[in-house]
Design brief:
This protein has about 100 residues and is mainly α. The chain contains 5 helices and no strands. The radius of gyration is 23 Å and the shape is elongated.
């Protein structure tokens, strides 16, 4: 019995399976929508504000309007000078990720 053809078929099948898995992962990643608010927060804020800052007991933010005001204040304080749209995006991300407050800014 010649083992070489079986090894070649097995290796070819493994290569095909790996290709399918890589393409499936790339397709799944392509379906994840870009979240600008999350990207801005992760790039500019996470170094100081880990998730505990938003989930601790006794936090002062009680409304979406207050959350937006804090986000805007930190934009100015940190010299980010975000546009109103960027502040809205970050506020929306923070609310979805941590606060779950009702209402609009």
């Amino acid at each position: 019995m010649n083992m070489k053809p079986r090894k070649v078929r097995w290796a070819g099948g493994l290569a095909a399976l790996c290709t399918v898995l890589v393409l499936s992962q790339a397709e799944a990643e392509a379906e994840v929508p870009f979240d600008r608010g999350q990207a801005l927060y992760e790039h500019h804020c996470m170094s100081c504000h880990e998730s505990w800052a938003h989930t601790r007991e006794g936090r002062h933010v009680r409304t979406v309007r207050e959350l937006r005001a804090r986000t805007e204040a930190w934009s100015v304080h940190s010299h980010l000078n975000w546009s109103a749209e960027e502040i809205d995006d970050v506020t929306d991300y923070l609310n979805r990720a941590f606060y779950q407050l009702e209402g609009t800014p």
